[in-house]
Description:
Layout (H helix, E strand, L loop, with lengths): L1 E7 L19 H16 L6 E5 L2 H13 L8 E3 L7 H6 L10 E6 L3 H6 L15 E6 L12 E7 L8
Amino acid sequence: MKTLLIVRHAKSSWEYPELPDHERPLLEKGKKRTRKIIEFLQSKKIKPDFVICSSAIRARETAKYIAKSLGYPVSEIKLDPSLYHADSQLLFDQFLDLSDDYKTLMMVGHNPTLTNFVNHFLQPPIDWLPTSGVVCLSFNADSWESIRTATVNVEFVVFPKLLKTD
């Protein structure tokens, strides 16, 4: 069994219009919403074995925040610049050389790529994966390379606004 967590980065800041898109940081509001997601993931006892992330600052900050909270070493997050402007095929290609020792993978990136990717598995499809949204899929597979054709189970699709606030 392989488990895949697809995470869209948290809400980012447009406060500094001179910054290139790749360099935009997170908003505090984005961190607060992500905290709700982290609490949800902790309640599900989620712990990734490997984390791969876009090199954009907002994705890196999101990955570090979630990984640290789930007990994954931040220094072991793999940054992949190709995930910044990836398409669904490139996401599938990420699995080709991934160690099958990893049972749970977390991938942090951007729309529209993530929405398009998760919609390969979701019925009905979602319109848009919002910021800090997470889709968790489990595959009846022994290798990551075979997930495309494996039986898939949607464990959960969660967005910050779906979670109760206290």
